[in-house]
């Protein structure tokens, strides 16, 4: 009997699709005729009917297990008297017919949300009704409205949540002081970005000695005070249900979709300057060598004595007699103490061998209408590092506290590279003639040693990118397996409960331990489809831990399963938030680059694939594809070991870090794709500018924090979806003719419909 497997359909704009298997096996290709009766994100059972010449499986749909309930977003059009919606996400592949009575108040050309009433069939298009009218396609912020629905991001609080938030006080009440340490006289301060509105954390540091006489240990007393969200968000309350559903705040250019109602996120919980606030404190003694020798947690009441920005603190630390320092002279010594403990913690980081690559992050600056004015590098200065190290220390203490108590909780786990990724990395290092490699059981220090040894080489960007590519994604899980990138035996998230649900859970667990009790997860409602996905992932996770195929996975306790489900839910929603944010940024960049069609720019190859080169522009920090057909009149072979394209006739090489000059040739707003054409065909030296991937080893507090962990194994290379958009199944990966016409031509919506 031929193999039958279940999975999720991943559509392709060209009409075919793939099935992403539940068992983690290779994706199964579905030809266009098999996609007629299914849609993107449907759950199906497929039978593998054949393999192509490379051994890749092709399937036939034998059963539609579950239709996706996600609404479809698109533009309402009228053609020959027939109303239809052209999906914004081209992976759906089919227009949705709208009966005359189901158009609501929508007008032709508007962006609408469609709910399917009839699924597609072999000989019939899907039928739907308009559920919501979003507005005109050029309305300011429309790209965000589309993204939140496209990725099912909860963007409206429930009525029960809003009503409960109204009952909360506007400030700290006298009764809230009970059983709390009064820290209002301690000059705690917040240090954040210029545009920050919610302040999770405040810090204070002073020199401190442990013990007396000759045996005294000198070091620092470091206080990290975190907003006590758990005091106001009760377990299982309406606010808690909404917060769990969101799991994280989502950050877009010019707009934030918060995890908590604004009264909490920007008001009552936010550590705003010169007002009383409730907090949970991690009080640490850090030795001169950067080791946390002792710590304690306790609830407190604080008063933020100043609201600093990163740039302001960096200016003060660089010149303690400058204008910024004179303006804040009463806090200068405190900032110098913070810098002192930072230097100590840096010693510990280097001793551990934590991975820490220097990179360039970018910020999109928009005007009032949401149009990009410019894309600028986000400068990471010493103040960022000071706060990051303080947050790392508090998070490690939190993980240790939970682990020592043997209480259930969520850890932030980043496992080492898989054997497959290690083999790819070893082959690459060998092919590059570096003279350094990694063993079968690598340590973070091995990666950092390679990074340090190559930082001044012209191909440093390529090497660092490959190191990043070998990493896995970080997840939330109750099973502590350590954090590979940061080189910690135990690590969790404690420092951002306003915008991350796992941090809120960690606070509740710590409070329960302090009270010598036990925290019980609430029975939070999960939508049916999401619950089924969680159940399947839990089952798959348990099965993967069984080495002997004949052995059945041990049945976890109800409490253990609940914590696993919470970890999976928070991890999945973190990915969802990142995907939605990237989608909006990609749309904005595409719209921005449409104004620069035909212009030439210098850039750096950020990824090499069998179908072309991804190039990041120097001045604009925008990435686009130079398709292999644009590389000149010869055959190019993709060398997987070296991660480069090489011309068979001339030996011209294009690898990560190669400098090129390109012309902007095409922008596909719907597909979120930018195409470049090579202007000069001579490969240059590797770029001196650092890679654009976010660095491993940071606990950044910027809106997109921890993305480095989430994307460590993915951002250095195009995702599966990017690869699918650029290369159809069956394309040769050995040698590809640059003169071939494999690249699909741009087709307008109207022309596409005429073809159909």
What structural category characterises the helix and strand content? Answer: alpha+beta
Poorly predicted residue ranges: 527-532, 541-549, 683-756
Question: Taking all residues together, what is the mean pLDDT?
Answer: 84
- For the termini, the CA-CA separation is 36 Å
Radius of gyration: 27 Å
- The global form is globular
* Main sheet makeup: 5 strands, antiparallel
Oligomer: single chain
Helix percentage? 25-40%
Number of domains: 5
Number of helices: 17
- Give the strand order, joined by hyphens, for the main sheet: 3-2-1-4-5
Number of strands: 32
Query: Beta fraction of the residues?
Result: 25-35%
What does this entry look like structurally?
The structure is a single chain. By secondary structure, the protein is α+β, with helices and mostly antiparallel strands. The chain has five domains: 4-66, Nucleic acid-binding proteins (OB fold (Dihydrolipoamide Acetyltransferase, E2P), Beta Barrel); 72-139, OB fold (Dihydrolipoamide Acetyltransferase, E2P), CATH 2.40.50.700; 159-405, no CATH class; 411-490 and 512-544 and 558-570, no CATH class; 596-687 and 719-755, Beta Barrel (OB fold (Dihydrolipoamide Acetyltransferase, E2P)), CATH 2.40.50.140. It contains 17 helices and 32 strands. The protein has a five-stranded antiparallel sheet with strand order 3-2-1-4-5, with no helix packed on it. The protein has a five-stranded antiparallel sheet with strand order 8-7-6-9-10, with helices on one face. A hairpin with a 5-residue loop joins strand 4 (43-51) and strand 5. Helix 1 (142-150) packs antiparallel against helix 14 (558-594), helix 10 packs antiparallel against helix 11 (460-469) and helix 13 (528-544) packs across helix 14. The longest helix has 37 residues, at 558-594. It is globular. The relative contact order is 0.10.
